[in-house]
Design brief:
The complex is a heterodimer. By secondary structure, chain A is an all-alpha fold. Chain A has one domain. Chain A has 24 helices and no strands. In chain A, helix 8 crosses helix 9. Chain A starts with a helix and ends with a helix. The relative contact order of chain A is 0.18. The mean pLDDT of chain A is 87. By secondary structure, chain B is mostly helical. Chain B folds into two domains: 68 residues; 84 residues, no CATH class. Chain B contains five helices and two strands; from the N terminus they run βααβααα. In chain B, helix 1 packs antiparallel against helix 2 and helix 4 crosses helix 5. The radius of gyration of chain B is 24 Å and the shape is flat. The chains are: A mainly alpha, B mainly alpha. Chains A and B meet through helix 9, helix 10, helix 20, helix 21 and helix 22 of A and strand 1, helix 1, helix 2, helix 4 and helix 5 of B.
Chain lengths: 494, 157
């Protein structure tokens, strides 16, 4: 059965239309990632209105490909300008830049590209091997387990990340409250609709994402006081030279980076950027020559470059199996899966196995075509980096408007991107992270449904939330995550 | 613009109370204890708790934050203008797109934004026309999104 499904999936992917979408998304991702200030999340948010019009497989393929490419190409401005193109490249942008300054730009960019691709493939393999069996296990879950799983995921998202936990919690609650708008709740009662019929079906996710991740970014650009970066036109030679030697020198680093990246990707809330930071730190800690770190040494780049791309695939494991996003990119992707009637969860392997396997194949393909396309991008990098951002940004604004309109077929979409753009801008200025908002908004309905179902089933007996074995463990894990900061604080006080 | 944590906390507390109060007006489902108000009420209580913690944190003597700290961009007339122009462009689209149609609105928005972001004057109109037509073709012809034609309906293609 499995082989037949793989063949079916391969057929889905090899459809010329899907291949064109993958190629287009790849180029789009590479360019967006390469331009500082435009992130992989923004690339996803901009793609979503387009995917609205596609069948499920090309829609998800576009997102998978664009993000994988954007995470790699974020390394390019890091190496050439010391400005990371996406937050995921920030950990080693300085190191890569120092290599360029020493005249080793080819080696730095080559390492970023090759190790990114291998890291991505590693994460994909883990995704392929573990998600079906995890899904089989998850089939035993009832509403109690799902309730705890979501609470666990959301608390991890808030309590594990860096920055203020309190502010992240507030962001998450705002997201969950946004999900309450409309009448798609177990009681089908219209809530917080302000008597607007348009809000009865809830707040549309796509305009909200475009507002939160694209319009806010535009507002940040127009208020940015920093002078535009100047690119020193450097000729970049063969970036693949010396890669084989590097792979033989750092096999452990490659494996460790990929494994750690995948693990970090799997747990909700921490995405590619944290994977890169932690891997860079791990690489320095276990290195035989830690004194070379920070002077333009390739080892840390190799390890964390692999980590951020593997994290991307890792984040899809909880997204596909449980419908719980690992980071803001998968949160957006889950929104797309729901729109395409491919509701994520363990049953997806029973209802639409060919679609899921097709996504796996796309992951493989994306990481493979990253090598030639990434090489091309590096070749034209100095031109891309010099692109006139004062022309690009208004174009993106118009694109956001049309995208929002396309989904709602009314001006409501444009009002939504405007409101959420301003909300995200103000929140970020005040130190409230945006990713938890989208996690909350995507998971809110499901969380409420599972909570209400469980409450009705238990008939007032709260003990039932803790007596089923798996639910108990999930509850315990949640408790540990939530109270851990308190413990740490108490320990420090003593 | 950075608000003092106490101020943000107060605003969030008021929001939480309003949500909780409004959720109180939701009717119960007959024969069922769990109504539509339960989940929003839980969220509102948690939000109120977080808001209180934020207020308390802001009151700690260690934090010597200003009540309202204006960002550097708010002091630069050009950046302040650009911020407003971006918002006004979005508003303009909401208000005028039905009447003027997408093409005219798009060209106008791009012209204004390009001008504000100091694109070379001679490039502004050709670029705005070209980009708007490109996006229009992609969405209207390619994806069949019914973008409004407005006053240009007679020459619709």
């Amino acid at each position: 059965m499995s082989f037949a499904v793989w063949m079916q999936a391969l057929n889905l992917v090899l459809d010329p239309q899907v291949l064109i979408v993958i190629l287009g998304a790849a180029v789009f991702g590479l360019l967006i990632g390469c331009i500082p200030g435009l992130t992989a999340t923004m690339a996803t948010a901009l793609l979503v209105p387009l995917t609205f019009f596609m069948p499920p497989v090309p829609a998800v393929a576009a997102i998978v490909t664009a993000t994988a490419m954007a995470i790699f190409s974020g390394d390019i401005p890091g190496a050439l300008l010391r400005i990371p193109g996406t937050p995921a490249s920030a950990a080693y942008a300085n190191e890569a830049y120092l290599m360029t300054a020493k005249g080793h730009a080819e080696l730095a960019l080559g390492t970023c590209l090759v190790f990114s691709a291998i890291g991505g493939l590693f994460g994909t393999l883990v995704l392929i091997m573990f998600s079906p069996s995890l899904a089989e296990f998850a089939l035993q879950f009832s509403s109690f387990e799902y309730f705890w799983l979501m609470i666990l995921g959301l608390s991890a998202a808030v309590f594990v990340g860096s920055g203020s936990r309190l502010k992240a919690s507030i962001s998450l609650l705002i997201g969950l409250l946004i999900a309450c708008v409309g009448m798609e709740n177990p009681a089908a009662h219209p809530r917080f609709t302000f008597c607007l019929p348009e809000l009865k079906s809830g707040i549309e996710l796509i305009p909200m994402m475009v507002g939160l991740f694209a319009v806010s970014e535009l507002l940040r650009y127009v208020t940015d006081m920093a002078p535009p970066p100047v690119v020193v036109a450097t000729k970049i030679g063969n970036i693949f030279g010396g890669m084989w030697r590097l792979l033989k020198t750092y096999p452990v680093q490659l494996l460790r980076g990929s494994a750690l990246g995948t693990l970090i990707g799997i747990q909700p809330g921490a995405g590619a950027d944290m994977a890169a930071w932690m891997s860079y730190a791990a690489s320095k800690k276990f290195s035989k020559e830690p004194e070379k770190f920070g002077t333009g040494h390739v080892e840390g780049i190799a390890e964390s470059g692999a980590a951020n791309n593997s994290a991307l695939a890792g984040a899809w494991i909880p997204a596909i199996v449980f419908g719980i996003p690992g980071d803001s990119i998968t949160a957006i992707a889950i929104g797309v899966l729901y729109l395409k009637n491919m509701n994520p969860g363990p049953t997806i392997f029973i209802n639409h196995p060919e679609n899921i396997y097709a996504i796996f194949i796309v992951f493989m393909l994306a990481n493979l075509i990253m090598l030639p396309l990434g090489w091309l991008t590096v070749k034209i990098a100095t031109k891309v980096l010099n692109v006139a951002r004062n022309i690009l940004m208004p174009t993106i604004l118009l694109f956001c408007i049309v995208g929002a309109f396309a989904v709602t077929n009314s001006s409501l979409g444009v009002i939504l991107i405007l409101c959420f753009g301003v909300i995200a801008f103000v929140m970020e200025e005040n130190g409230f992270p945006i990713a938890p908002v989208i996690l909350g908004a995507v998971l809110g309905k499901m969380l409420e449904e599972n909570l209400v179902t469980s409450l009705i089933k238990s008939d007032g007996d709260m003990l039932l939330f803790f007596t089923r074995p798996i639910a108990m463990w999930l509850a315990a894990a949640t408790f540990i995550i939530v109270t851990w900061p308190l413990f740490k604080w108490l320990l420090q006080k003593r | 613009m950075k608000l003092h944590d106490t101020l943000s906390g107060l605003a969030l507390l008021i929001l939480a109370l309003l949500i909780g109060w409004h959720a109180g007006s939701f009717p119960n489902v007959p024969g069922q204890q769990i109504g539509p108000a339960v989940f929003p009420k839980i969220l509102a209580s948690l939000l109120a708790l977080c808001a209180l913690l934020l207020i308390l944190r802001g009151r700690q003597p260690a934090t010597d934050q200003a009540w309202v700290q204006l960002g550097a961009w708010l002091q630069s007339p050009r950046h302040r203008r650009n911020f407003l122009v971006t918002l006004v462009c979005l508003f303009f689209y909401v208000l005028a797109s039905e009447f003027l149609g997408f093409l005219l609105c798009g060209v106008l928005i791009l012209c204004v934004m390009f001008y504000a972001l100091s694109v070379k004057t001679s490039h502004i109109v050709p670029l705005a026309l070209g980009i708007t037509l490109l996006i229009h073709t992609l969405f209207y012809k390619g994806l069949r999104v019914p973008l409004p034609w407005g006053v240009l309906s007679p020459i619709q293609w």
